[in-house]
Amino acid sequence: QSVLTQPPSVSAAPRQKVTISCSGSSSNIGNNHVYWYQQVPGTAPKLLIYDDNKRPSGIPDRFSGSKSGTSATLGITGLQTGDEADYYCGTWDNSLSTGVFGTGTKVFVL
Amino acid sequence: QVQLQESGPGLMEPSGTLSLSCAVSGGSIFNTYWWTWVRQSPGKGLEWIGEVYHSGNTNYNPSLKSRVTISMDRSKNQFSLKLTSVTAADTAVYYCARGTRTLVATVYYYVLDVWGQGTTVIVSS
Asked: A32-60: buried (b, 16+ CB within 10 Å) or exposed (e) per residue?
């Protein structure tokens, strides 16, 4: 049972933009920074965004993150077929004293 | 650069104890990181299992706490997961990861930045 809620799927045509929401509470997103992962089926998660909006070296600026209150958003612009994957948000939960993940969102490139 | 590699039994019978190891290369396990286990059941999302700090402090997922132990092996530069009384519901890909968590004022900066490739565990009779 995930603490953070994401839409099951989003889709768009190539070169378009998608956004993925991640909804939490004051014990997690509302007070701590958020990170985002991309997971291609059969592989380990790959870090895309950390500290709400920072990109690790090598991650293109087509990927962006933002946060407002108890929700966070991942944006992907210039959608490519290689972006078809599952995306997860995550953060620390102060009440549980554990890491928590989102439910995951499947991105489809039409 | 740090790399993580999981190892485990692959297949095990119900009611047994699952033991997994994560070998850390390219860095010391005694650096100030939280060494973490995450699992993913078939077709499901990521589930945070627990973590151990270089000091030996641990945190566990409340839903698994009664069955989980995470520890460090200083001599082998690795950390381990033990999960008791396994059932088919524990069938999953198990990942080890390196966590960084810093508290600034009242805000946690937290991220799992390095992951192993994962090891599949199937619980079946």
From this structure: bbbbbbbbeeeebbebbbbebbebeeebe
CB contact under 8 A, B110 and A47: no
Among B67, B57, B51, smallest CA distance to B100 is for: B51
Residue among B12, B97, B108 at smallest CA distance from B47: B97
Task: Give the span between the Cα atoms of A51 and B123, in whole angstroms.
Answer: 37
- CA of A7: how far to CAs of A15, A37, A50, A70, B58, in Å? 21, 15, 20, 16, 32
Write the pLDDT tens digit of every residue in A82-96.
999 999 999 999 999
pLDDT tens for residues A9-50?
A: 999 999 999 999 999 999 999 999 999 999 999 999 999 999
Distance of alpha carbon B29 from alpha carbon B39, whole angstroms: 21
Q: Is residue B37 within 8 angstroms of chain A, CB to CB?
A: no
Measured between CB atoms, which of B62, B109, B110 is closest to A99?
B110
CA distance B91 to A99: 21
Measured between beta carbons, the chain B residues lying within 8 angstroms of A97 are 59
Contact A63, A54 (CB under 8 A): no
Could you tell me how far CA B10 lies from the centroid of its own chain?
15
Instruction: Supply B59's token pair.
Output: 């945190």
The sign of the torsion formed by the CA atoms of A63, A5, B101, B33 equals negative
